[in-house]
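Exercise 7. Predict the joint structure of the components listed below.
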Amino acid sequence: MAVSKKEISACPIDAMLSVIDGRWKGTILWRLSEGPMRTSELHRTIPGITQRMLIRHLHELVQDGILERHQERSTPPCVRYSISKYGLTLLPVLEEICTWGRKHLALQAAG
Amino acid sequence: MAVSKKEISACPIDAMLSVIDGRWKGTILWRLSEGPMRTSELHRTIPGITQRMLIRHLHELVQDGILERHQERSTPPCVRYSISKYGLTLLPVLEEICTWGRKHLALQAAG
DNA sequence: CAGTATCCACATCGATACTG
DNA sequence: CAGTATCGATGTGGATACTG
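Solution:
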């Protein structure tokens, strides 16, 4: 869109959507809601995602305060991502979204 | 995105987001939650939206069953849009999204 | 392993002009 | 007034190769 959702927007709905908007962010949060994970682990368990998009989305989520990045200084490097305390406040909302979405899919299937 | 959110997706979150995704859909639903409105009325009260995008989003929302379109056969034509019974089930979720978004904006403003 | 750099494809959106 | 058609801009994501 011409006005990127990344811009500062006065609309609270857009503000929230901008955080979870992105092809894979929902899936990423879903996986991480089960516990911290390494980058490569996420990469393996999310079919179809490219490394570029994975890293990109992870960093954006960190930027927004939703995720935390823990790096163990070692060779080769080991980075773990987890949902931050702030990110936890997002999960109930995602649940609601998911619930509605499930019903919507069921209705679509029914015709 | 390459895989359009309009595609049939097995992910409930994407399913819900695809319904409200679109530069202006949040705002449109917001306005219509206060009551039915004519196309021109919406056009006037949503600053910056073009006629094309307004109509486009309205029709998509009708397609998804969220809105209802009432046409009075007259010259010139008079069309009113309102939130459908099904669309009403979406509003509480939008409220949740909005609430979280408001807090998020407040935090951003705080730094 | 984690992350970056390029390059490209495509969907969405905006501007404008037009129709019934 | 409600809606369509056309065209161009651009943002987002994908493929691939590369670095520390």
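Discussion. Chain B has one domain: 23-103.
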